Amino acid sequence: MRIGITGVPGVGKTTLAKHIAEKYKFPLIDVNALVKEKKLWAKIDPSDDAMIVNMAALKRELQTLPQDCIIEGHLVCEFDLALDKLIILRTPIKSLEKRLRERGYGDDKVKANMYSELLDYCTERALRKYKGKETEIYEVLTNKPLHESAADIDTIMGESDKKNSLKAPWVDIVKEL
After folding, report:
1. Is 47 contained in some domain?
2. Which residues pair with 136 in a beta bridge?
3. Do residues 81 and 65 lie in contact, with contact meaning Cβ atoms separated by under 8 Å?
């Protein structure tokens, strides 16, 4: 099973992905680490020291995912990968702001990421990219203890009817269109 975990910076992707990968004994593919390792960036943005990723090169690299894996990163929502499930992590704006400031992000970077979260960027992007695909798309809130967010992901991984309550908004509407 291929599981994607995405969301804006600061929502807890890395923490939850490591936990889930360890629990299910799946290899973890960290997109940010892959970009650095394979030098899949074109330049550094001088305003915030962020890498400007070569998206075409990254997409080529991600086309050969192992059969069972967890792939984690904020850019996962930008591609239509061969995923069975895509989990978008979300957190309330005040929690996100606190986490980003604790990381030392500057005001502009904090605001940009907060706007992305407010506008449901990752969810909207994923719904467009995975339209017509068999990928199941879910949202999990991460403003609670790790074990509670992990329990939501366990529900998604299982066969429980409760997992439908975690489906991303508009999934069924978009599929019908």
Report:
1. no
2. 85
3. yes
